[in-house]
UniProtKB/TrEMBL annotation:
Organism: Potamilus streckersoni
Lineage, uppermost ranks: Eukaryota, Metazoa, Spiralia, Lophotrochozoa, Mollusca
Compositionally biased intervals (Basic and acidic residues): 412-424
Coiled coil ranges: 1336-1366
Domain USP residues, every copy: 175-565
Domain of life the protein comes from: Eukaryota
Enzyme Commission (EC) number: 3.4.19.12
Keyword field contains Hydrolase: yes
Enzyme class: hydrolase
Molecular function as annotated in GO: cysteine-type deubiquitinase activity
Protein's recorded name: Ubiquitin carboxyl-terminal hydrolase 47
Length: 1397
């Protein structure tokens, strides 16, 4: 004998590799969760019988052979895996079932249906542990039995388990509960009630006498059914959905986590309501209710005033209010609970006996304890310094045996009770099996596994328990027998793992019949040890961080349940043969339902789930269905089922359809199944497919066609027939071809499939997008032409000689295919008719608007007395070309900024209208800058801010009906009425029309079209489906130069086809458009005008993303290629023009708790100066926020997140001096004095004084620096503070605005007075506006503060810092009240009931 590498003994005389064929078996155990999926190898002779092979595998892995299911993963054609289950009685050799030519064969151990695999008993404690470690073993088959030790069964607490094991009952014999979403708290309480014999037995004895419909809403009935499943089901876990449905909960309730103690109270109340007038009416009170006395006792005369109250649980404080020390045990917390409070001084008690105020004791005394005692450990508290809920993870131990006799209010033992401590019985192992006083500690401290305590007093029943544990438990029980009537044993620990923000509940519960502890963690039930229980005491393992109280997560006991040790009342759990008759009937219903579910699962295991596709011959589109078919059905039967699923019985005969293998991902035909109509689907698919991973295509044909055979390795071609006469392309037809075929052979094949002539056929291959290749060489193979696995080919057979003679890129066929490639469908959501009418009504408020068609704030307010200052009229004067007011507020000869500012006040709109539009301001500026109209025919554009745009899309959050200014006009000085003010200075041409490329020959006094008059069509009539091909909006492309050298531009028409508008019952409108994606946005908007009913200047185009986010498209020169999802929303409002951007303006309040406040949204344009933008937004600031700011005391500055940045000077221009971009944010800052920042060379710095003698920071101040040196900064600080320059020390603020720092750290942690001369040098490195510099007087001494003051400052700092961080990071979970809905009014659990003890 020699020893192998795996230490297994192998006879050397039998080892001969060349003796015969061997089979290398790789075996994976998918049952044992401790070595889940670990591979083992066996090298066996091919002559070994399958039955012997199963026995050997079972022995190698330590299983009983008849309890496991061994499966062979057989490799079949195409790389597919076919799973073969090995029969225990199989007499074939292993080599016969294994595929030849494969070196490694994979076998998998799985569970058998409805049976948990069983381990064999360990016969040796020996030397071989390779099964658990995954090492390979070489087995030589012989008649001798090898002494292979088996793996003994072990209990574990792992959450990993295989899928099949989830359907089998736990090896503990107990059934878990499925967590619906966040119902772990419910599961913990239900398992505790289920393991309580008195509660379960009483529930079983109750009989429901209502109907089936009423039973659905009956909480006791559903609870009874759930307990029956927990006791009799063979599943691993039971569902609680029926019970929660009886609570009146919907699907949203299960996503709310609640407190388990709160649930206990609410559910007990609901049960009491449902059990009215039954034998169980007082069950809750009999089991869980105790009494306590709330008293006040005079310390002078001894008179006591008391009230007796009932309770269902005792809340025990973990940490007293205001204290840093917590109670270490339940005993200490109980003593504190009954410790009286002394009422003295101003809080004295008025004693009626003494007839005066006296010192008194106020507290609680227990009158009686319930049979089932519930203790709640109050681990959740509220921290008033941080204003957060917190969880107290402090250690609190609890005993398994608890004697509460000393807590009972017994007048004969008053003095004795005042000084006595709770008597607790602890279990602690000792080295010699005896319990000494020195070894006793609070709580359950047994280090090794114990199986519990038996109450017959005999140590012979402690099988499997160490002698130390047995002796300890026996000693405890004997002592408890003489300890009095108030001795309790612990049987349930409900545990919370997590923080105050959320967590997970589970329960440790002891079986009261055998004393074994189990962990009930949702669907997992496992055995536990006393060491696991000891870990639930709590206690932090390390130092706490800043947020530890709020965010620290820990696992500890939250609620304890004890049962009184009373041999007369202690009940045993009811067994199945003891069930009442009504319960047996209900159990039979449950068993029948489970049997039906089992049969359904068996059926599903034999059901193939296939995805079937079909190109419907009449609907002209691809359809798909999920087909479920039994594996024993034939291919012919499956074909008939597929034809029925697609409703083709009356469309296509059965002999004109067939199923072929299809690849949905690549959209290719894989192969056909010739002469396999009677083949079983299970065999055809290579086994049962249960995940819809196998695709089939139901192929159809005409009666005169024949089905071609599809061999593996071919290519799929989608053939599109192009019709040049009708200018359309027909739907595709799938054609199967091969790479070795020539182009001529392919044309012949297409001719047969499409039934078209082959003589004049032209074929065009689309290899990639915009890559069209004419297949003109007949002898070339398809592979040479570049055919892939899936292809697109366009064919045309009209025989047009002219089109055939021109180059392909200039032919009609190419243009048709090019259009087809670039045309896509766009779904457009339109404003409703009511919204458009409301828009028109708002526009009609201005008489000017009805003629101009421009949604300008200027036009909307120029003739409105309500929107002008002093009810004045506005005219244009020939002399100075300025707006005037009758009341003489503005001087004609003065064209100051205040005059312009006043004009803006005269242009205010009605409520909800906006003036923050550049066209308003520039229209007024244009009126001031020009004294007469330009010469007729001038090409000069009048919209100064609207230069050629480099902009991109911009996000708009403005209201849909927000009117913005849109006026491009100037005055000629001779207007007869205000209506003439809208005339355009330069030929009357509208800017948007100029951008769109529409030429205009209008006179200087010609009005642009109104949206109410545009195109002279009635927009109330529905738009019919129309195709605009010849009259499309165009874009221009260069076509060379003429004889004079000028560039020749040719108009390119783009395809646009609109389907009729659809209107739903809510009045919402939508339409579908087929459009060439190369069309310009400006042309696209022009095409939409007749369908919307407004000119393009009055609506905005928003692209919609897959996540429903929308962004405005503003660049009119862009094409529609950006529409990836093909969805567009149309909104009413002034559309952004080229060079315009929407800007969000926030007010900067440096000394406020919230330094950033949103004001409004405005439109800035390229070429606009900062001064112009300020004047433009001032009217809205006054109208919306009441801010009347002097122009010289207002500044705009850069906003980067929440940091104030560079200051924008009045003379700076957007885009040239200041970069402007979409989604832009700026700060508006109101100054206390006129602006001092006049040059880019200056630097604006915030300063803040630190006063160490007061532990105080002064408010923010600002200084403007010219030289940007440290000396200059100190001089400015000296001017502000009065501190001599030589005594000033500075330090740069850290972080982001407002640069928060703790008052306890600022004096020492900052880098004070760095040795640098320039602000740009490190460590200051102050180069941009908005930085903060702290300063202090070096002669000012630091205040010495006491610990109390330091603690007070720290609490304030914590509260302040938490508020700052809460705005960004902290989002507390909103809790929903826990309710269980019953038909009757709930009865409170605090009512007084007779003493049942």
């Amino acid at each position: 004998m020699v020893t192998g590498e795996n230490t297994q003994l192998i006879p050397t005389e039998d080892v001969c590799v060349a003796d015969g064929e061997k089979v290398l078996c790789i075996i994976r155990d998918m049952v044992d969760t401790q070595c889940h999926g670990v591979k083992h190898s066996l090298n066996l002779p091919a002559t070994v019988l399958v039955s012997e092979f199963i026995q050997e595998v079972a022995k190698q892995f330590g299983y009983m052979a008849h309890t496991i299911n061994l499966q062979y993963e057989r490799q079949v054609e195409g790389g597919q895996i076919e799973v073969m289950t090995l029969d225990h009685s199989e007499d074939r050799a292993l080599g016969e079932i294994c595929v030849h030519g494969i070196r490694r064969h994979t076998f998998v151990i799985n569970e058998m249906e409805g049976q948990l695999p069983q381990k064999v008993e360990a016969v040796s404690s020996g030397n071989n542990e390779n099964q658990a470690s995954g090492t390979s073993s070489c087995f030589n088959y012989s008649t001798e039995e090898s002494t292979k030790p088996s793996i003994s069964s072990t209990s574990f607490n792992s959450t990993e388990y295989s899928y099949s094991s989830a359907l089998i009952k736990s090896e503990t014999g107990y059934v878990g509960l499925v967590n619906q979403a966040m119902t772990c708290y419910l599961n913990s309480l239900l398992q505790t009630l289920y393991m309580t014999p008195e509660f379960r037995n009483a529930l079983y004895r109750w009989e429901f006498d209502g109907t089936e419909e009423e039973a659905v809403k009956s909480i006791p009935s559903q609870l009874q059914k759930l307990f029956l499943q927990l006791q009799t089901s063979k599943k691993r876990a039971a569902e609680t959905t029926d019970l929660t449905r009886s609570f009146g909960w919907d699907s949203g309730e299960v996503w709310q986590q609640h407190d388990v103690q709160e649930l206990c109270r609410v559910m007990f109340d609901a049960l009491e309501v449902k059990w009215k007038n039954t034998d169980q009416a007082n069950l809750i009170n009999q089991l869980y209710q105790g009494k306590m006395k709330d008293y006040v006792k005079c310390l002078e005369c001894g008179h006591e005033s008391a009230r007796v109250d009932a309770y269902l649980d005792i809340p025990l404080v973990i940490r007293p209010f205001g204290s840093n020390q917590s109670y270490s045990s339940v005993d200490e917390a109980l003593r504190a609970f009954v410790q009286p409070e002394i009422l003295d001084d101003s809080n004295q008690y008025f004693c009626e006996q003494c007839n005066k105020k006296c010192n008194a004791h106020k507290g609680f005394k227990f009158v009686s304890f319930p049979y089932l005692l519930t203790l709640q450990l109050k681990r959740f508290d509220f921290d008033y310094s941080t204003m957060h809920r917190i969880k107290l993870n402090d250690r609190m131990s609890f005993p398994e045996l608890l004697n509460l006799k000393h807590l009972i209010d017994d007048e004969t033992e008053t003095h004795k009770s005042d000084s006595a401590k709770p008597e607790t019985k602890m279990m602690s192992p000792t080295t010699n099996g005896l319990v000494s006083e020195e070894d006793v500690d609070e709580g359950i401290e047994v280090e090794t596994c114990a199986c519990g305590t038996s109450y017959n007093g005999s140590s012979d029943d402690f099988s499997g328990v160490s002698s130390n544990e047995a002796l300890v438990n026996v000693k405890n029980m004997r002592e408890s027998d003489v300890s009095g009537p108030y001795t309790y044993e612990l049987f349930s620990i409900m545990i919370h793992s997590g923080s105050a923000a959320g967590g997970h509940y589970y329960a440790y519960i002891k079986c009261l019949s055998d004393g074994q502890w189990y962990s009930f963690n949702d669907q997992h039930v496992t055995k536990i040890t006393y060491e696991d229980i000891r870990k639930t005491y709590g206690g932090s393992g390390g130092s706490r961080g800043y947020y530890s109280s709020t965010y620290a997560s820990s696992t500890n006991a939250y609620m304890l349940m004890y049962r009184k040790i009373d041999k007369e009342r202690n009940a045993c759990l009811m067994k199945e043969d003891e069930f009442p008759e009504h319960l047996k009937k209900e159990l039979q219903k449950i068993n029948d339902r489970e049997e039906a579910e089992r049969k359904q699962k068996e059926l599903e295991k034999s059901t193939c789930k296939i995805k079937v596709f079909c190109y419907h011959p009449t609907q002209r589109r691809r359809l798909d269905h999920k087909l479920e078919i039994h594996k024993d059905k034939t291919l012919a039967e499956a074909t008939e089922m597929a034809r029925s699923v697609f409703d083709l019985e009356d469309v296509v005969p059965l002999d004109c359809v067939r199923l072929v293998k299809y690849d949905e991902y690549q959209d290719t035909l894989e192969r056909s199944f010739e002469s396999e109509e009677e083949t079983l689907i299970g065999k055809l698919l290579g086994g049962v497919k249960q995940s819809y991973c196998f695709d089939l295509l139901l192929e159809t044909k005409r009666q005169d066609q024949i089905f071609h055979e599809y061999k593996p390795g071919g290519v799929t071609v989608k053939v599109y027939l192009a019709d040049l006469k009708k200018d359309i392309i027909h739907d595709p037809v799938n054609v199967r071809a091969y790479h070795v075929q020539t182009v001529q052979e392919f044309k012949c094949l297409v001719s047969q499939v499409l039934n078209i002539p082959e003589t004049n056929m032209r074929c065009v291959l689309e290899r990639f997008h915009s890559d069209l290749r004419l297949l003109s060489i007949p002898n070339k193979t398809l592979k040479t032409e570049g055919f892939f696995k899936s292809n697109k080919v366009y064919v045309e057979c009209s025989g047009d000689q002219h089109d055939n003679s021109v180059p392909f890129q200039e032919s009609r066929l190419y243009k048709l295919l090019d259009r087809h490639q670039n045309t896509f469908r766009v779904h457009i959501t339109l404003p409703s008719i009511a919204e458009i009418e409301e828009w028109k009504r708002l526009c009609s408020h201005s008489t000017i608007y009805s003629k101009t068609g421009l949604d300008s704030a200027l036009e909307s307010g120029i003739n409105s007395s309500d929107n002008s200052v002093g009810n004045s009229n506005e005219v244009c004067n020939d002399g100075n070309d300025s707006l005037e007011v009758d009341e003489g507020i503005s001087d004609k000869s003065d064209r100051s900024d205040s005059d312009i500012d006043f004009r803006f006040r005269t242009l205010s709109l009605q409520r909800g209208l906006s003036q923050s539009d550049p066209s308003v301001y520039h229209s007024c500026q244009q009126a001031e800058r020009n004294s007469s109209l330009s010469p007729q025919g001038s090409d000069e554009r009048t919209s100064s801010p609207l230069a050629q745009s480099m902009s991109s899309q911009s996000t708009s959050t403005s209201a849909e009906f927000s009117l913005s200014a849109n006026l491009n006009s100037n005055c000629d000085g001779n207007f007869d009425s205000p209506e003439e003010f809208h005339l355009l200075q330069e030929g009357g041409q509208d800017v948007s029309e100029h951008i769109c490329g529409n030429d205009s020959d209008q006179h200087e006094k010609t009005l642009p079209p109104s949206p109410l008059q545009s195109r002279e069509m009635d927009f109330k009539e529905p738009i019919q489906c129309s195709e605009n091909w010849e009259a499309e909006t165009s874009d221009l492309i260069p076509q060379g130069k003429d004889s004079e050298g000028e560039e020749v531009l040719e108009e390119i028409k783009r395809y646009f086809l609109a389907e009729p508008i659809e209107t739903n019952f809510l009045g919402q409108r939508s339409m579908t458009v087929y459009v060439d994606k190369r069309i310009l946005l400006s042309a696209f908007k022009k095409e939409l005008e007749p369908h919307i009913g407004l000119t393009s200047e009055n609506f905005k185009v928003y692209r919609v993303y897959a996540n429903s986010q929308e962004f405005e498209s503003t660049r009119l020169s862009d094409t529609l290629s950006f529409l990836e999802d093909g969805k567009i929303n149309i909104k009413l409002g002034r559309a952004l023009r080229n060079g315009e951007y929407r800007v969000k303006i926030y007010q900067l309040l440096v000394n406020e708790a919230e330094p950033s406040k949103f004001l409004l949204e405005a439109i800035f344009a390229k070429g606009m100066t900062v001064l112009e933008s300020k004047k433009m937004i001032f009217p809205d600031l006054r109208l919306q926020h009441g801010l009347d700011i002097p122009l010289d005391r207002c500044r705009l500055r850069k906003k980067t997140w929440k940091n104030p940045g560079a200051i924008y000077l009045n003379n700076q221009t957007y885009e040239e001096d200041i970069q402007i971009f979409p989604n832009w944010d700026v700060f508006l800052e109101v100054l206390d004095e006129p602006e001092k920042m006049l040059s880019n060379s200056q630097l604006a710095v915030y300063i803040r004084r630190w006063m160490p003698s007061k532990y105080q920071l002064d408010p923010f101040q600002e200084v403007i620096l010219q030289l940007q040196t440290v000396d200059e900064l100190k001089e400015k600080i000296s001017e502000k503070s009065g501190i001599p320059v030589e005594d000033i020390e500075i330090a740069k603020g850290r972080g982001t605005f407002p640069y928060e720092v703790s008052l306890l750290e600022i004096h020492t942690d900052l880098d004070w007075n760095p040795p640098v001369t320039s602000l740009s040098m490190w460590p200051l490195y102050i180069c941009d506006d908005g930085c903060l510099v702290y300063y202090r007087d070096r002669k000012e001494e630091l205040l010495e503060i006491s610990e109390e003051m330091k603690k007070d400052i720290q609490q304030k700092e914590n509260a302040r810092m938490n508020k700052l961080n809460q705005r960004v990071n902290y989002s507390p979970r909103k809790e929903k009240a826990l309710k269980i809905y019953t038909e009757d009014t709930p009865v409170t659990s605090s009512k007084v009931s007779p003493d049942l003890d």
